[in-house]
Every structure is written in C-alpha cells, then in structure tokens.
Design a protein that fits this description.
Structural class: alpha/beta
Helix content: 40-55%
Strand order of the largest sheet: 3-2-1-4-5-6-11
Bound molecules: nicotinamide-adenine-dinucleotide, thymidine-5'-diphosphate
Shape: globular
CATH topology of one domain: Rossmann fold
CATH class of one domain: Alpha Beta
CATH superfamily of one domain: NAD(P)-binding Rossmann-like Domain
Largest sheet: 7 strands, parallel
Radius of gyration: 20 Å
Length: 356
C-alpha cells in the first residue's frame, strides 16, 4: 500500500503520545508512524503494548536534543508530519528541578525545529505540504480569577518553570513560522486524563493511593480549578488540527469541564467505593483526603474557551467528565499490573526485553 504520510511523533511513549499513536495506528492505516522517545521516567513502552507489531510503526530511542540524530532521521524517513509531544510535563518536578525542563522543552524543541527547517526548506526536499504540530498547554496563559476563559489571543503569562518552558517553546515555534515560513501549528490544551497517565498527576495518583490505603494529598484549600479533557478527545482534536488546521495558527482545546480538585478527588473515591466496596478499614476512601502544604506559585484556575476550534474545524469534546472519569477508573482497575509496574519501576526494564 502506498504510504500517504510519514509522521514523526516525539514522546510517543508518554501518556498523551501513546494514546495518540494508538489512535493513528487504528485510523490511518496508510501512514508510517515513527515514534521517537528518550524513555525518561515518564516514557513507558508498555503504553504501546499490542500495537507495536504493526509494519506501519517504528520506534527510535533518542533524545530530541540530539541534533545529529534528529537531522538524520528527517532525511532517512523523509518525514513530512511532526507531532511534537516530547517534554518534561510535571509542574511539581519543574519546581524541584527546572533544568531538565529548560533542556528538553526549550532546547529540544529548538533542535527539532532546526531539523525540520533543514529538511523541508533545503530545496532538495521533494515532498509537499509538510506540517509541524507543536503540542502545548493552557498553562502558558497563566492563572485566571473566578471568571473569564483563555482564548487564542490571551497574552502569555506563564508562572511555573514548566509553563515558562512551554511558553518559550511556543514562541520559538511561532518564530520559525514568521521568520522561515516553517509550516507550523500549535495546540494549547487543558488538563488531560485517561489511560496510561503516570501516577504522579492528580487523577492516577488518587486512584493508586486510594486503592492502597495511602493519604490523598490535596494542595492548599483544594479549590483550585482545572478544565478536564478526556485524552482521546484531545488526540482526535490533534488529528483534526494536523490535517485541516491553518498553517501558522494556534488552537485552544478544552473540555468545558471546570472542576475543583476536591470535587475530582471525592468523585474518584466514591466511584471506587461503589465499584470495589469499602476498603478493609471499613471507612469510605474520601476519609483518606489530607490537606497538605500548597504548591509554590500554584495557579488558581484554568479554563479554555474552545469555540474557535469548533467554528473552524468542527471539533468538540465527545466525552463528558462523568463518563470519562468512570471509563478511566475502569481502565485503571482493569490494568492494575500496569500501575504496579510503574510504581515498582519494572516498566523501565521493558526496553531491554523488547529491543535487546
Ligand atoms: P508525559 O510526561 O506523560 O510524556 C512525555 C514523553 O516525552 C515521555 O515518553 C518521555 O520519555 C518523552 N521525553 C521526555 N524528554 C524527552 C527528550 N528529551 N527526548 C525525547 N523524548 C523525551 O507527558 P504527557 O502528559 O503525555 O504530555 C505530552 C505533551 O502534551 C507535553 O508536551 C505536554 O506539555 C503537553 N500537554 C499535556 C497536558 C496534560 O494534561 N498531560 C495538557 C496539555 C498539554
Ligand atoms: P496536576 O495533575 O499535577 O496537573 P497541573 O499541575 O498541570 O494542573 O495537578 C492538577 C491539580 O491538582 C493542581 O491544581 C495541583 C493539584 N494536586 C493536588 O492537590 N495534589 C496532588 O497530589 C497533585 C499531584 C496535584
């Protein structure tokens, strides 16, 4: 079969990247998918178990900061689409150790942009309609008060080392469009949840702790608000933007599901109590909730106005928060081996097992 597209997905062993590759392999049987991932602590090859045998698929273990590898890969594979997920993604880690965020999120994105520029704008490249889609976050816009929503024109006001590094990469991607005409697209999305999320983020952490009788740490007063989006909806939006989006444009993606952290945590506890019965202690899981010291510089509220992508591309989320959280809890319950191998670190041995 003729290969229509040769797509490089960076960070495809992470949470959203793995969900995205699963969607691509299911939907785009005539695309060649090259997954490049460094396999940091957040990269887990098990996230792609069952789909990696596909002939459409190739895995490359590499660092996006390695310019030689990136440039050679563009030539070797004649890459014409890039979807760039690879990043350090956890705000708490960016507070305790920002250096890796600067390196991967800023230097890594720059390195990837250079590789695309050298390949696509070199004059010898024979493909057409190349596209570089940079996956970013709503956190670049800063923190909202009780009202208002982020639109595509909201000025950047990042406040954590994570969001500052992502904002910086967004600026670089835009600069390559304005300066070199590199065909870029940017998506700024709200908080995702769903299968394969590393259990340091709120939802999978609460699942794991409440299943094992550990405290559920709530930062500050627990009234911080996030706009939650089911990961498959995000992945579908990325495909729409990649294929139909206007070059040079950024698109906000959100779930229209604003929830306070405390609401999210109690809901998960209650669903688990219902599905699995009360724990051995006999006490409802919500009693594990423990208020702890607040995160430094904690952003109060995020909320996305996703009307532009709906008007322009017809995308809107399909999964409500209630459905999505139920599906997510079911997935974690059915995949406790996955959670266990992440917690005990055995997932990191998977590369040797698969690739020697
Ligand atoms: P994740 O931390 O689960 O996965 C990141 C992946 O990138 C891992 O597989 C890791 O091994 C890989 N990686 C890290 N550094 C690398 C490097 N130097 N070279 C190659 N690979 C490297 O992240 P995620 O939650 O899946 O997020 C993916 C992207 O989406 C990120 O860019 C993030 O900023 C963005 N985003 C995430 C959310 C969210 O709620 N999780 C929301 C909006 C945007
Ligand atoms: P998180 O999942 O880390 O995503 P982000 O910081 O990118 O929004 O956190 C979501 C919200 O939950 C955020 O307001 C911080 C809060 N939180 C807790 O209260 N306790 C926790 O243990 C964690 C990890 C997060």
């Amino acid at each position: 079969m003729e290969t229509k597209r040769r797509i490089l997905v960076t960070g495809g062993c992470g949470f959203i990247g793995a969900n995205f590759i699963r969607l691509l392999l299911a939907q785009k049987s005539d695309w060649r998918v090259i997954n490049l991932d460094k396999l940091t602590y957040a990269g887990n090859l098990q996230n792609l178990e069952g789909v990696t045998e596909s002939e459409q698929y190739r895995f490359v273990k590499a660092d996006i900061c390695d310019a030689d590898v990136m440039e050679a890969l563009f030539v070797e594979e004649q890459i014409d689409f890039v979807v760039h997920f690879a990043a350090e993604s956890h705000v708490d880690r960016s507070i305790s150790g920002p250096a890796a965020f600067i390196q991967t999120n800023i230097v890594g994105t720059f390195t990837l942009l250079e590789a695309a520029r050298k390949s696509w704008l070199s004059g010898s490249w024979r493909g057409n309609d190349p596209r570089f889609l940079h996956v970013s976050t709503d956190e670049v816009f800063g923190s909202l008060g009780d009202t208002g929503m982020f639109t595509e024109t909201t000025p950047f006001d990042p406040r954590s080392p994570y969001s500052a590094s992502k904002a910086s990469s967004d600026h670089l991607v835009n600069a390559y469009f304005h300066t070199y005409d590199l065909p870029i697209l940017i998506t700024n999305c709200s908080n995702n949840y769903g299968p394969y999320q590393f259990p340091e983020k709120l939802i999978p952490l609460v699942f794991h702790n409440s299943m094992t009788g550990k405290e559920l740490p709530i930062y500050g007063d627990g009234k911080y608000v996030r706009d939650w989006l089911y990961v498959k909806d995000h992945c579908e939006a990325i495909v729409e933007v990649l294929v139909k989006g206007k070059i040079g444009q950024s698109y906000n993606i959100g779930g229209n599901n604003e929830k306070q952290n405390l609401e999210v945590v109690t809901l998960i506890c209650d669903i688990l109590d219902k599905k699995t019965g009360l724990p051995a202690s006999g006490a409802p899981r919500r009693e594990l909730i423990t208020f702890v010291k607040d995160r430094l510089g904690h952003d109060r509220r995020y909320a996305i106005d996703a009307s532009f992508i709906k008007e322009q591309l017809g995308w809107e989320p399909k999964v409500t928060f209630e459905e999505g959280i139920e599906k997510t809890v079911d997935w974690y319950l059915a995949n406790q081996d996955w959670v266990g191998s992440v917690i005990d670190g055995t997932y990191q041995k998977y590369y040797e097992k698969m690739y020697g």
